[in-house]
Automatic annotation (TrEMBL):
Protein name: Universal stress protein
Family annotation (InterPro entries): Rossmann-like_a/b/a_fold, Universal_stress_UspA, UspA
Residue ranges annotated for the UspA domain, each copy included: 17-153
Family according to the record: Belongs to the universal stress protein A family.
Pfam family, one: Usp
Domain of life assignment: Bacteria
């Protein structure tokens, strides 16, 4: 007679239940959101759309004019997402939530994935040339090795 070992929960074994996607208004982030929405629909997972608000710079805190506040950007993103959801609601049934976190994009997405107990993270490929030197958010998320990460071009 063999003794059965107790089974414990292992993230990702039954397919993703929560998929986090980072959206910042760039075209690659919108493509990532579309990909993540399709994945969430097929897996019947919750799509957690995350916008990471950058930390306000010292100049902006002292009253220097800024080109659109991060709060306004978050509101615009939510409005765009709601409009798209309404347009496709009869053919595209996806449960979704919008979350805003503060900080740099990498730290914000890590915090979001941890707090929302993400089973997968989806991000768009970086459109910035500077990331070749510093390292993109996507590469840093992959190197963290804590969730499956999909990078959408």
């Amino acid at each position: 007679m063999t003794e059965q070992q107790p089974t414990s929960f292992e993230r990702g074994t039954d397919g993703p239940k929560v998929i986090v996607v980072g959206v910042d208004g760039s075209q690659s982030s919108y493509r990532a959101a579309a990909y993540a929405a399709g994945l969430a629909r097929r897996q019947r997972a919750l799509l957690a759309i995350v916008y990471v608000q950058p930390v306000v710079s010292a100049g902006a805190a002292l009253g220097a004019p800024a080109t659109g506040t991060t709060g306004e950007i978050a509101e615009e993103l939510v409005a765009e997402i709601r409009l798209a959801t309404e347009r496709f609601k009869d053919i595209w049934d996806v449960r979704w939530e919008f979350h805003t976190f503060h900080g740099d994009p990498y730290s914000g997405l890590v915090t979001a994935a941890d707090e929302l107990t993400a089973d997968a993270v989806v991000v768009g490929a970086s459109e910035s040339a500077g990331h070749r030197i510093v390292g993109s958010v996507a590469v840093r998320l992959v190197k963290a090795g804590r969730w499956p990460v999909t990078v959408v071009p």
